[in-house]
Amino acid sequence: NLREMGVGDTGLGKKVKSLATAFYGRLGSYEKALKSKDQKNLIESLKRNLYSEISPSDYQLSLVSNYLKKRIAESEKWSFTDIDNANIFHEVIE
């Protein structure tokens, strides 16, 4: 909740715009990396956007990258009911 984060009425629009810009920037970065079919591009995008302030191991990046690609491939089979019931993510990354 933005109000709980201290955003007042006058700053709400600006904060929402900032959050939307960040979200769509990340989305574009992931889309470009996935379309390139180069694992390195996706890993760099994940490092920058998901792990911005920490340094994950190559193994961790590989796990997340593979998980993401697997979920995207499976998403073509999801029904609206599956999505509505949050019945789409079962696997845990370990």
Could you describe the 3D structure shown?
It is a single chain. This protein has helices spanning about 10-35, 40-50, 60-75, 80-85. About 65% of the residues lie in helices and about 0% in strands. It is mostly helical and about 90 residues long. It contains 4 helices and no strands. It has one domain (about 10-85). The mean pLDDT is about 85. The two termini are about 30 Å apart. α1 packs antiparallel against α2 (about 40-50) and α2 packs across α3.
Please provide the ordered H/E string of secondary-structure elements: HHHH
Report helical residue fraction.
55-70%
Biggest β-sheet strands, sense, barrel: none
**What would you report as the Rg, rounded to the nearest angstrom?**
16 Å
**Percent of sequence in beta strands:** under 5%
Give the distance, in angstroms, between the N- and C-terminal Cα atoms.
Answer: 30 Å
User: DSSP helix count?
Assistant: 4
Shape: globular
Task: Decide which structural class fits the backbone.
Answer: mainly alpha
Find the count of extended strands (DSSP E, 2+ residues): 0
Instruction: State the oligomer.
Output: single chain
Weakly predicted, low-confidence segments: none
Mean pLDDT: 86
What is the count of structural domains?
1
Describe the secondary-structure layout.
Elements: H1 9-36, H2 39-49, H3 58-75, H4 80-84
Helix pairs in contact: 1-2, 2-3
